[in-house]
Amino acid sequence: MTRFGLISILLLAPVAALAQPAPPAGTATWFGLHYIDTSTEGDINGVRADETARIAMVEEFIADDLTQRGFVLTAPPPDAVASILNPVRSNGADARIARDMGSDYAIAGEVQKVSNLIQSINLQLRDAETGETLRAGSVEIRGNTDDAFRRGYSYLLRNVIFREERKE
C-alpha cells in the first residue's frame, strides 16, 4: 500500500483558518486524544489492550512532534479535566483551562473508530486567550496499526495544522 493509500480523505478546517500563517510555537496545554469507538466490535468485545496502547503511543508521537516544532507542553491538572468527557468538544473548557495555566494554546485530538479498518483522526489547536480554533483538521486512515496512526497524524500535523500557505 502506498503512503497516500492510508490517507483517503482530508477534511480541512474552515478555509479562513488556513489563510492565516501557521501558529508560532509557544506554550501549550496538551490534552491528548479522546478515543471514541462507534464500531460494533467495541460494544461486543469491550476495550482492546492494543488500541489503548496505540492511543498512548500516538499521543507521545504528537507530543514529540510538537516539542520539535518548539512548543513547550504541559498536561492539564487531573481535577480540572475530571468533568470533561472530551476536550475537543468541551464548549471552550479546554481553552479556559489552558489560559488559567498560562498557556498560549490548547491542543487536543480525537480518534473515532468506525470499524477495525476505518479510523477518523483529528487534531485542533485553539488560542487559549480567545478560545478561537486556529487550526483543525481530520484525516481518515485505513488500518488499525501503529504505523497507520503515525502516518495519519504525521500527515495531519505537516499538511494541515502547520501547513504554510503556498506562495504562487
Overview of the structural elements:
This protein is an alpha/beta fold. It has one domain: Rossmann fold (3-Layer(aba) Sandwich). It contains six helices and six strands. Strands 1-6-5-4-2-3 form a six-stranded mixed β-sheet. The relative contact order is 0.24.
In short:
With 168 residues, the chain is of the alpha/beta class. It has a single domain, classed as Rossmann fold, CATH 3.40.50.
* Distance separating the two termini: 32 Å
Helix content: 25-40%
CATH class: Alpha Beta
CATH architecture: 3-Layer(aba) Sandwich
Low-pLDDT segments, ≥5 res: 1-18
Widest sheet: strand ordering? 1-6-5-4-2-3
Largest sheet: 6 strands, mixed
Instruction: Calculate Rg over CA atoms.
Output: 16 Å
Q: Mean of residue pLDDT?
A: 87
Number of helices: 6
| Strand-pairing-aware structural class | alpha/beta
Remind me, CATH topology? Rossmann fold
**What oligomeric state best describes the polypeptide chains here?**
single chain
Beta percentage is 25-35%
Number of beta strands: 6
Number of domains: 1
Shape: globular
In N-to-C order, the SSE pattern is: EHEHHEHHEEEH
